[in-house]
Amino acid sequence: MPRLFVSPSPGLRKTLAPATHFKSPRYQKSAGLFVARRPAYIGRIDTPEHQPAWLRPTITAYRGATPTLDGTLAPGEWDDATPITGVRGWFHQFKPVIDDRDLSLRGFVKHDGSHLYFAFDVTDDVLYGHTVERWLPTGFPRAHELTPDGFPWFGDGVELLINASDPISAQGASGTGRSWQMVCSTHKSRLGGVGVPGLLEGEPRTVPAAWAAYQRWIVDGAQRAVVRIKADKTGYVIEWAVRFNPCIELSPGVWYDGRSEAGVGLNIAVQDLDRMEDGEGMFANIHHESWWSHGTARAGQRPDERDSWGTLRLMPGVRPKR
What DSSP assignment string belongs to 58-92? Predict the structure, then answer.
């Protein structure tokens, strides 16, 4: 039987900063903690010719029917949504993905006037904590703690990053309804702990107000996610709901309401640890981390910075017939 986990759960996120080389990550002292920050650019963006293509992609979310969050993409349930495909053509932070059986994604996005919905059907040939035992990266024994000391993003899973109204700049999310970064893990969660997939607080996890806001969203159900591990262990499915109020704040005290067109910043990351030896030479032995958008070739740019993100267009009408 497939394992089904329902959770508005929180997490933690890596705040990774530029480093001179990926084998020697820099550490930043913040709020009394040493925060591991991943290197700026050690990967590549795949195009058909495997050449850099510094683009900010755009995708549109139309109004559609409210999906059932159960980890199953039922026939017709997402037909009114805009499809997302990956991770070919995405930016690869660590080792590039060269086989769709190793890591690939079929996703969807839409809204129903009160919530934004994402679905991700991920193919992954090695599931951390499911088909291989959990392992900890050398030097980071607290990676699975559900505190700001932990690494919420350490494991297989998906991260969503949205910038509704913060300035576009070389900064990460602020941890508010203006801009945020949240994690959905296949092996740990705020509500269920280690061993139960779900949502986790993301970055900036060492900012107390951001940590508190993320945790409140999870506990109160402002963000909800369901994770289902596929029965044959070849991947997982995530269905994720984001309530406009308080998570999409277009201006102070004004949240998107589905009645007009709006554009917000968006990035999506897919994490794939695999075995410890698969990520040899990479930060924390992470094998793959693939990002939907990486922005421009600014020196030292990281995909978790707001000027790296693409655009999500929110439309009040239904998706045009194909």
Answer: EEEE-B-PPPP-SS---TTTTTTSEEEEESTTSEE
